[in-house]
Known about the structure:
Elements: H1 10-21, H2 31-43, H3 49-66, H4 71-74, H5 77-80, H6 86-115, H7 120-126, H8 135-145, H9 152-165, H10 168-183, H11 185-198, H12 213-225, E1 235-236, E2 241-243, E3 246-248, E4 253-254, H13 258-262, H14 278-282, H15 285-288, H16 305-322
Helix pairs in contact: 1-2, 1-16, 3-6, 6-9, 10-12, 10-16
Amino acid sequence: xxxxxxxxxxxxxxxxxxxxxxxxxxxxxxxxxxxxxxxxxxxxxxxxxxxxxxxxxxxxxxxxxxxxxxxxxxxxxxxxxxxxxxxxxxxxxxxxxxxxxxxxxxxxxxxxxxxxxxxxxxxxxxxxxxxxxxxxxxxxxxxxxxxxxxxxxxxxxxxxxxxxxxxxxxxxxxxxxxxxxxxxxxxxxxxxxxxxxxxxxxxxxxxxxxxxxxxxxxxxxxxxxxxxxxxxxxxxxxxxxxxxxxxxxxxxxxxxxxxxxxxxxxxxxxxxxxxxxxxxxxxxxxxxxxxxxxxxxxxxxxxxxxxxxxxxxxxxxxxxxxxxxxxxxxxx
Length: 332
């Protein structure tokens, strides 16, 4: 999502993030489930809680199984003996996930036909009508105007990506950022001082996030120490080449280790320490260049970088405003 598109989602995004970030004891045991619930609520506002938990489990297990080692990758002969490892489990998970998403699509399509709405959802989202506007409604509206491009398979894939790639990564980064701030109260106090000076106590506006440099330094330092995706998306070499003295043939799968790059002592001063101020010296993440790759780089970088930074920033502002500032250094 480009920076120019970010304001379009503000009527939905800001209230959701603030409501998730607000402390509610009865929901504190499962913050990721609450974030997942709000995300699914934007897709389908009537999902029952038990089905939500089941869907959440399917998405989580898919992520785990996708990263599991497959012995057959190292010993292909095992496939001839009927060994499929995690592939069979992954296929079942994907079928189950697609069936659940298919239910959402069918229910929304039925409602649209019953109400005779044709493109009204897209208008509703622009007007901030949260009672009607969902991502599925908008996609179905686009499908009516261009059915060849916006097929059910395309809609299912988009929804799966939103849920799998856009929720846990931001939620985990926010959790780690708050843990680091509680361990380093001096950084938390500096962040609160910046908020008091530039925002004040009475308001929280999304437009203020780019004007909080120290807050952005904290987010960048959190992503440096704990990238949400330690191994970036696989790439493939387009030609034979030599990298670091190693011959890399054409067609080789390439995995960039962001965790190792971000903690390289040859390029970072005291890389194991939490020092947000290092980005003030660097001039920001952009100046760090290829030493800082939490979202990848080039044409294949994460398209949700701008949205993720805005969401994480708004949530952290809310949490810092509500925090007591107590130190948890040395506690388990």
